[in-house]
Amino acid sequence: MHNVKYGRALVALALSCLAYTVPAAAGPSDYVVTPIVEEGEREIDFKAGTRKLRDGTRESAWSIGLGYGATSWWFTELYAKWHHEPGAPSAFDAWEWENKFQLTETGKYPVDVGFLLEIERPKDRSEGYEYKWGPLLQSEFGLWQANLNLLI
């Protein structure tokens, strides 16, 4: 009975987050995050991307990160980020600290649940800090895997 209540609470949390969603505005090097954490995992993560703007010019971004699975439920990663806007040279843009928390045991429930917290400090500190947080959901349907990041 406890598992049913816990599962219902997770579904209620996910649905309440949907009520506060806005259209996604992902950057050129953003990606989907999974809620699964592996203790002891070491990672070098390189992300790069570009997108065409409405005026036909391109914006690009890339980053490199070093990550570590500190516990069976916490993965932490530090990124250095660069950005290129049309008409400007590529330049170092920010430091980002990403923390992923696995909240359910992998495969124990129909949906694996995690939580993401990112803190970004831009090179130009007058821009202020940027925070990104929210639940990470993952489920498997036979050969298919579905992920949903509800990030604010």
Task: Please render the helix and strand layout as text.
Layout (H helix, E strand, L loop, with lengths): L1 H17 L23 E11 L5 E12 L4 E11 L6 E12 L9 E11 L7 E12 L2 E6 L3
Antiparallel strand pairs: 1-2, 2-3, 3-4, 4-5, 5-6, 6-7
Tell me what the structure shows.
This protein is mostly beta strands and 152 residues long. It has one domain (2-149). It is 11% helix and 49% strand. The chain is built from 1 helix and 7 strands, in the order αβββββββ. The protein has one helix spanning 2-18; strands spanning 42-52, 58-69, 74-84, 91-102, 112-122, 130-141, 144-149. A 7-stranded antiparallel sheet has the order 1-2-3-4-5-6-7, covered by helices on one side. A hairpin with a 6-residue loop joins strand 3 and strand 4 (91-102). The protein is globular and about 55 Å long. The two termini are 32 Å apart. The mean pLDDT is 87.
Helix content: 10-25%
Strand order of the largest sheet: 1-2-3-4-5-6-7
Strand content: over 45%
Quick one: overall form?
Answer: globular
Question: Residue ranges: pLDDT <50 for 5 or more in a row?
Answer: none
Total domain count: 1
Order of helices and strands: HEEEEEEE
Mean of pLDDT: 87
Radius of gyration: 17 Å
Biggest pleated sheet: 7 strands, antiparallel
Q: Which class of secondary structure composition applies to the elements?
A: mainly beta
Measured between the Cα atoms of the first and last residue, the distance is 32 Å
User: How many strands in all?
Assistant: 7
- Total of helices: 1
